[in-house]
Design goal:
285 residues, 6-stranded mixed beta sheet, 11 helices
Length: 285
């Protein structure tokens, strides 16, 4: 199993503040990885570097490689970045749908990066592409809303539409930045189940940034935790103990620990193996 994401010596500063500090990280093909850490730890910044939306400091000898191709090096974007981005689906916290357009049209937008300009500008989609979009909506459970305006959907439904858009894009990697931050527990489970199923059934690599630690332990097999812009923990989700979480979150741990949507040990929807919730970690520590 080869690396599909590789980061070497990535540093990013915003004025005097260092958001990322010499990050070294690899993600293997087919993994589902949770990116944890307190607010301001660098999670969103790291995801944006992986998609080429921002670049690292020029003075740092850094490199970010996606699918075996350099996307940025030494603080600059590399040639061919548009083609690399077409393989990476990005799911944002605020959905990034055009609310006045139909759900179907928003999902079809996932094809734009692979279409010639003469078809993408007028949004000229083929019948086959429309069928694929409907199948993607069916897969995430909202096909009946295909012709509704995106703005009329609930937050959870809009996020699932964004996941369907990544399916239509045929992304080999999905980066999700706090995709359940504004959702209730039920909607959050549906979104995480969709991401997990895509990971398991399609072999798509998923890196998802989360504040909800229980969801990370339930749905992801690996946890990468950032603190002060550095990798503080990188290992199996089942081994991420309460002591380690306290080190990561510091004084914010009690607030994080209170977020327990099920109040019991959680099970992966695909593996059936039990993974610990925060309460079970407190008992077993």
């Amino acid at each position: 199993m080869g690396h599909v994401l590789e980061i070497r010596h990535l540093t990013k500063s915003f004025g005097p503040t260092r958001a990322l500090d010499d990050i070294n990280l690899t993600i293997d093909s087919g993994q589902m990885v949770a990116l944890l850490g307190p607010s301001g730890s660098g999670k969103s910044t790291l995801l944006r570097h992986l998609s080429g939306l921002v670049v690292g400091d020029r003075r740092a000898l850094s490199c970010v490689t996606v699918m075996g191709r350099d996307i940025q090096k030494d603080g600059g974007l590399c040639p061919g970045v548009r083609g690399i981005r077409a393989q990476v689906g990005f799911i944002f916290q605020q959905f990034n749908l055009v609310e006045r357009l139909s759900v179907l049209t928003n999902v079809l937008a996932g094809r734009l990066g692979r279409m010639p300009l003469w078809r993408s500008l007028p949004r000229w989609f083929t019948a086959e592409e429309r069928r694929e979009a409907l199948q993607a909506l069916e897969r995430v459970g909202i096909a009946e809303h295909a012709l509704k305006r995106a703005g009329n959907l609930s937050g959870g439904q809009q996020q699932r539409a964004a996941i369907a858009r990544a399916l239509v894009q045929k992304a080999e990697i999905i980066l999700a930045d706090e995709p359940i931050a504004s959702l209730d527990p039920h909607a959050s489970h549906l979104v995480m189940q969709n991401l997990s199923q895509i990971n398991q059934e399609d072999g798509v690599t998923v890196l998802v940034s989360l504040h909800q630690v229980d969801f990370a332990l339930a749905y992801c097999t690996r946890v990468v935790a950032l603190k002060d812009g550095r990798v503080h923990y990188d290992g199996a989700a089942a081994s991420c103990s309460q002591t380690k979480l306290k080190e990561i979150y510091g004084s914010a741990f009690d607030e994080i620990a209170a977020i327990d949507p099920r109040g019991k040990a959680t099970a992966s929807p695909t593996s059936g193996r039990q993974r610990p919730s925060l309460r079970s970690l407190a008992v077993n520590e």
